[in-house]
Amino acid sequence: MKGHCKILVFQTYNGLVAIGSLVFFVVAMSCAFLYLFPSVPPVVNSYPVSNSSSSATDKCDVFEGRWIQDESYPLYNASECPFTEIGFNCFANGRKDGGYAKWRWKPKNCDIPRFDVRAVLEKLRGKRIVFVGDSLSRTQWESLICLLMTGVEDKKSVYEVNGKKITKQIRFLSVHFSSFDLRIDFYRSVFLVQPASVPIRSPKRVKSTLRVDKLDDISQEWIDSDILIFNSGKSLKLGMPITTGFRIALNTWSSWVETMVNTNRTSVFFRTFESSHWSGRNHNSCKVTKHPWSSSWGKDRSTISDIIIKIVKKMKVPVTILHVTPMLSFRSDGHVGTWSDNPSVPDCSHWCLPGVPDMWNEILLNLLPGNQVSLK
Ligand SMILES: *[C@@H]1O[C@H](CO)[C@@H](O)[C@H](O)[C@H]1NC(C)=O
Ligand SMILES: *[C@@H]1O[C@H](CO)[C@@H](O)[C@H](O)[C@H]1NC(C)=O
Ligand SMILES: *[C@@H]1O[C@H](CO)[C@@H](O)[C@H](O)[C@H]1NC(C)=O
């Protein structure tokens, strides 16, 4: 994560490459402010979801609610699912308290129906689902595959089409549920926009650059899909001014969706900032709790999420915001902590599987067209 601070953002104006303004340069240097989020007073209610989303959300904001204990969870065993990467399988890595996997999200004004794997698999028959984003997107991809595999008898009928293994840097993974003609793909594209080469006279600390005016060149491969789920937000960790870069990148993304994606066919989702729970003065200690926090401690707000919501609301085509920031703010218990493949580096950003990301998928599946979140 710390590697991402060495970034210089620049933009093209009428073909002329104007190398990152002094502002962005300063931003790249300000890694010291890595985890200094702007402090926002706690807000009790979550944001309303975009009006352009499906009808279900017009009646009920599924992202406003609370976590309740449910002994029928978790919905799968990560050790029995070949698509949970070892780094997220906290149980296998020695985590003894299993309570973190026994919570379910309860929206205030409606209920998320009990996960019915056979019905979901039938609904997804013949579809292509594409996740695009960073490692948290990969977590959601793994979670969805493991959730769905509980409904497949012949586990060998579910496989990565190129026989590839899950790694942290892998750019593309495609899992085929052959008995359902269903594909679930993951594309690593941390900033969604195009990585670029480092300009010759850049300072040594600049390790990578981005062209915020151009979408990632693999974006062509995302178009032919039925469900397209994005996330992005790493740049927040660079401090305030980088939000300018994020805003431009997200506008590039929104124009791309408007012009390239046929939203009559493809349901497009954008997941908001995934609250992390780093603590301490330098925001580098990680204390994973046994139970969720009873207060969000202000983590239910995020500048990145505000930008995402604002840009998506202005779009000409329907895009559903998966506004997970408020629901995650309580889940100080759900992180990987030291129960990863590298216990010497505590992790208060990523989540254990099974666990919190499973709920993102339950919600996602209920926001698909033709579904209605059942009202009280
Ligand atoms: C959503 O639309 C309704 C009516 O169509 C309107 O009253 C409401 O203010 C809108 N909400 C937002 C957040 O834009
Ligand atoms: C998951 O499965 C493994 C292997 O089959 C088993 O050892 C383990 O106890 C199971 N975990 C839970 C939490 O049930
Ligand atoms: C999507 O549907 C609308 C309304 O039915 C139609 O006007 C539009 O041409 C369609 N767009 C595409 C790309 O098929």
TrEMBL record:
GO terms for cellular component: Golgi apparatus; membrane. Residues 59-111 form the Trichome birefringence-like N-terminal domain. One of its GO terms (molecular function) is O-acetyltransferase activity. The keyword Transmembrane applies. The chain crosses the membrane at residues 12-37. Residues 112-234, 235-366 form the Trichome birefringence-like C-terminal domain. Keywords: Membrane, Signal-anchor, Transmembrane, Transmembrane helix. InterPro entries: TBL (IPR029962), TBL_C (IPR026057), TBL_N (IPR025846). Its main location: membrane. It is found in: Membrane. Coiled coil: none annotated. It is a single-pass membrane protein. Belongs to the PC-esterase family. TBL subfamily. This is Uncharacterized protein.
